[in-house]
Design a protein that fits this description.
Blueprint: H1 5-17, E1 21-23, E2 29-30, E3 36-37, E4 39-41, H2 50-68, E5 73-77, H3 82-92, E6 96-99, E7 112-113, E8 121-129, H4 133-144, E9 148-157, H5 161-169, E10 174-179, H6 180-189, H7 195-206
Parallel strand pairs: 5-6, 5-8, 8-9, 9-10
Antiparallel strand pairs: 1-4, 2-3, 6-7
Length: 213
């Protein structure tokens, strides 16, 4: 869910302006999963824009405090959310850890990097939510380490039904700065897409795994 429609549209506007989100209904992208998609999102591009970095860290930090109170630790999901997670932790003045997709094969074989005590309250930061599988994998790792995961905050979510079901199944509250509906609304308002392209983008979101141009 998003808490503030104006912030959601502002975030979408920034992501479109920086081309962190690219919409290409007529020449679809191919995701790593093999899905054909008229949209591609790479929020790491935001790190190259200082003013945008500040906006994102401040707004995410506000959501963290409003939704979950001041956490003991902020956790970023590797690799995309490490940088934004650090910025949010710095804004809140709390420790930071990050979670690998799986434990290292060498050394201490850590999956969680940084200092984390059992029983500490943790809010997880993500850059992008698609199915939610990798994000919830990080949540499970934190829980196994004894953390109390209060929830997750992300920059953007595609809003897939499978993601909603996955988060509900794990009883994890997800809040995002922006989402697919806000993105399409902003893209249409700014003439970034046409009414016809809007229909294509809306159709894709209904069944992304089976969508064909």
């Amino acid at each position: 869910m998003v808490l503030n429609k104006d912030i959601a549209k502002k975030t979408a506007e920034l992501l479109l302006q920086m081309k962190a989100i690219k919409l290409s209904p007529n020449e679809p992208f191919t995701w790593a999963s093999g899905w054909k998609s008229p949209i591609y999102c790479d929020n790491r591009i935001t790190l190259s824009y200082p003013a945008v970095r500040v906006f994102l860290k401040e707004e995410i930090a506000k959501i963290v405090e409003k939704q979950h109170g001041m956490p003991d630790v902020i956790a970023g999901v590797a690799t995309g959310a490490i940088a934004i997670g650090i910025l949010v932790a710095q804004e809140l003045g709390v420790p930071f850890v990050y979670v690998r997709p799986e434990p290292k094969k060498h050394g201490r074989k850590n999956q969680i990097e940084g200092y984390l005590e059992r029983g500490q309250n943790v809010v997880v930061i993500e850059d992008l939510i698609s199915t939610g599988k990798s994000s919830l994998n990080a949540v499970e790792a934190l829980k196994e380490a004894g953390a109390v995961v209060k929830g997750m905050v992300a920059i953007f979510s595609y809003g897939f039904d499978i993601a909603s079901a996955n988060f509900e199944d794990k009883n994890i509250e997800l809040t995002t700065l922006s989402n697919y509906e806000s993105l399409l609304e902003q893209a249409l308002d700014s003439n970034y897409i046409s009414d016809k392209e809007l229909l294509t983008l809306t159709d894709w979101r209904r069944n992304p795994s089976e969508w064909k141009q």
